[in-house]
Amino acid sequence: MKKLLVLSIVLSALFFSCGNSDKNKEAKKQDITVSESTSNEKTFIKEMSYKDFVKNVWDFETSANEFVFNGSKPCVIDFYATWCGPCKMIAPIMEKLAKEYDGKVDFYKVDCDQEMKLATILQVRNIPMVFFMKEGAQPEKSVGAKDEAYFRSQINKLLGE
Length: 161
Known about the structure:
Layout: H1 2-16, H2 22-38, E1 46-47, H3 50-56, E2 75-80, H4 85-100, E3 106-111, H5 116-121, E4 129-133, E5 140-143, H6 148-158
Parallel strand pairs: 1-3, 2-3
Antiparallel strand pairs: 2-4, 4-5
């Protein structure tokens, strides 16, 4: 009985510490904004909204039953949250690959807390979730933190290499 009580307390603490309150989300958002604005390096990853996705990747509002890629080149879309540890682990990998494949592959990131509608439609239930999309192929997805070699191999598959 004591073990069950301790387990429920630990799980409750984890649940409430994940940044679910609006106050925590806003504070974390401000932290990220500050860290991005103080960095002198150019980012090669574009932040994507629901409208951007429909316009530049897949307009599922008009073609809901069939994946029709709208992009001009293959893309990688990283669904993340600011409070997610594994998401933070893959962020530098994504940035490195976005810089390396600049001009060949578009890289996007979607904050699941800000773009809940898009995350729901694409059934993003676990993060990080990374989608690999290109014309003429069904989207592929990867769930969880992976290493650079894995992401590189998926990108090379997108490019037919």
